[in-house]
């Protein structure tokens, strides 16, 4: 898996406000990015279903005027993770958490 593809996918979906998260790779990037955007903390070493519960507890009720951030919240809250988990997901979480160019895609 090329991690930059998962990042670009999440950003493009938020910019276009279309589609849903398709897998745990996008989910982990989105979780890290949401941590950066909203100042919430997650334990990214948790397995997908546990991280999903953390996200639901932390993002329910968060209000933002940014339409891309609203869509990110929607995608994260609607996502149903599988049990798949590996080190690239940790890398994607950290990539989102340390995002320097939010909402920009280089194709």
Give a short synopsis of this structure:
The chain has five helices and no strands. It is mainly alpha-helical.
Shape: globular
Terminal CA distance: 17 Å
Number of helices: 5
Beta fraction of the residues? under 5%
| Approximate helicity band | 55-70%
What is the succession of H and E elements?
A: HHHHH
Radius of gyration: 12 Å
The beta-strand count equals: 0
Overall pLDDT, averaged?
94
Helix/strand/pairing category: mainly alpha
> Biggest sheet, in brief?
none
The poorly predicted ranges are none
Oligomer: single chain
Q: What do these coordinates show?
A:
The protein has helices at 3-16, 24-38, 48-59, 67-78, 87-97. It is mostly helical. α1 crosses α2 (24-38) and α1 packs across α5.
């Amino acid at each position: 898996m090329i991690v930059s593809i998962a990042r670009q996918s999440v950003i493009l979906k938020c910019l276009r406000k279309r589609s849903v998260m398709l897998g745990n790779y996008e989910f982990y990037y989105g979780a890290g990015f949401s941590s950066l955007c909203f100042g919430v903390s997650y334990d990214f070493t948790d397995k997908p279903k546990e991280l999903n519960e953390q996200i639901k507890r932390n993002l329910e009720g968060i209000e933002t005027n940014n339409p891309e951030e609203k869509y990110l919240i929607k995608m994260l809250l609607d996502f149903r993770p599988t049990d798949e988990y590996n080190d690239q997901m940790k890398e994607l979480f950290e990539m989102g958490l340390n995002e320097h160019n939010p909402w920009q895609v280089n194709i």
